[in-house]
Design goal:
Elements (H helix, E strand, L loop, with lengths): L2 E15 L3 E8 L3 E7 L18 E8 L4 E10 L8 H17 L7 H16 L4 H15 L18 E5 L4 E4 L10 E2 L2 H12 L12 H18 L5 H9 L1
Parallel strand pairs: 3-5
Antiparallel strand pairs: 1-2, 1-4, 2-3, 4-5, 6-7, 6-8
Helix pairs in contact: 1-2, 1-3, 1-6, 2-3, 3-5, 4-5
The structure holds zinc ion.
The site of zinc ion has 8 residues, from β7.
Length: 247
């Protein structure tokens, strides 16, 4: 026999099943990332048609069967309506959800990632800081939540905490001026960029999107996150193809 469970979470992805039904992937506080079958969700009369849209945040009542969840009821807190009116923002938000989906698992404690994703979508919607900065902050912090934090406080080779001027994705973080090997591929990292990464790694999630950076820092953050993501995640995200088109 199955049972009824209530979860709080966000719709990461949706897919159609046949003519009337949908499958929704939810990132939840209680059960990690789960997928649920939503019978009749494509019918206009369905009581939860609106809940089965990406980026919807709320409480979902599910029936837990032997191998699957069935969506029964939803109580929506936030639809991210403003975000859905801007195509560029939809691309960013879709990528954030796809990355979260890729890194999370069922029955894992993914509450930090859920909080981070929620705040990041709110930041996109508010438009007070540039989308690409939100993206780099999100990438750096979600990898930290996942257990792949960049080392940004001490040299990855000798542990020294000053004179940190290089970044090596292969070594997992920063290097001091003395520890770079001859011919070793590294990126240079300026003081302001280093402070920015330290802030991203150590601040409260609710305070993450409260700063802006210079163009120079933005360019360094882009190079560093791109190289770090390639080294440690190395997965072709479908939603990134759209982002490449716009930026
Ligand atoms: Zn060193």
């Amino acid at each position: 026999m199955g049972q009824e469970v209530k979860v709080q979470g966000l719709v990461l992805q949706t897919g159609n099943i046949g003519e009337y039904d949908k499958r929704v992937v939810l990132l939840t506080k209680e059960r990690g990332r789960i997928s649920a079958f939503a019978r009749g969700a494509k019918k206009p009369t369905s009581s939860y048609a609106a809940a089965c849209q990406p980026f919807t945040f709320g409480t979902f009542t599910l029936y837990e069967g032997k191998n699957s969840f069935n969506l029964m009821w939803s109580d929506i807190d936030y639809y991210f309506e403003k975000l859905k009116t801007d195509l560029d923002l939809i691309y960013y938000a879709s990528y954030f959800c796809e990355l979260a989906s890729y890194l999370t698992r069922e029955n894992n404690d993914e509450f930090e990632i859920l909080k981070l994703l929620y705040q990041s979508l709110r930041a996109l919607e508010k438009k007070t800081i540039p989308e690409d900065l939100i993206r780099y902050v999100y990438e750096i912090r979600i990898l930290a939540c996942y257990g792949l934090a960049m080392e940004a406080f001490a040299c990855t080779n000798c542990g020294k905490m000053d004179d940190l001027i290089y970044f090596s994705s292969r070594r997992g973080g920063i290097l001091c001026s003395e520890c770079r090997e001859k011919g070793e591929q590294v990126l240079t990292i300026g003081q302001s960029t280093l402070y920015t990464i330290q802030f991203i790694l150590s601040s409260k999630i609710t305070k993450l999107y409260t700063f802006k950076v210079s163009d120079e820092v933005l360019v360094q953050l882009k190079k560093i996150t791109k190289s770090y993501m390639k080294e440690h995640v190395n997965y072709q995200f479908k939603s990134l193809e759209f982002l490449k088109l716009i930026g």
